[in-house]
Amino acid sequence: MKSRPFFNPDTFHAEASKHAYKYxxxxxxxxxxxxxxxxxxxDSKEVFKTESGFWCLKIKTLKQKTERYxxxxxxxxxxxxxxxEYAEKQxxxxxxxxxxxxxxxxxxxxxxxxxxxxxxxxxxxxNQDFHCYRHTVATNLAxxxxxxxxxxxxxxx
Length: 157
What we know:
By secondary structure, the protein is mostly helical. The chain has helices at 9-16, 20-32, 36-40, 76-80, 83-89, 107-119, 132-143, 148-155, and strands at residues 47-49, 55-61, 68-73.
């Protein structure tokens, strides 16, 4: 099977637009570099506009033993795609279809993501699982000259 781009409009939009969590969690991962469970666990009030006028995500760092948060800006492309309007309509959980499981709220997304990834011909797990977005964001920010300390803060290191 020949592979197609993951975000191919003909396949991704048709598949992911049926459920907001499929659509937005994948795109949030691509643009923020956040961990899957961090995104799946977001509450609607954790999407907010700062005093300077920037939309941000308040992401709870799940890997730390103490509860800590980091602010990650919402990319303008996500705003253009209607993410803010979607978030403002949610009452509590940003993705109410996702429920806590043994592996966290991201388990449902992870299973869908891997099935969809294979369906578009991305069959090698290496550098093609959801976690690869963290590397993509770090690499792109570094290429833009963003300081490594800032990149670490955005990624929650």
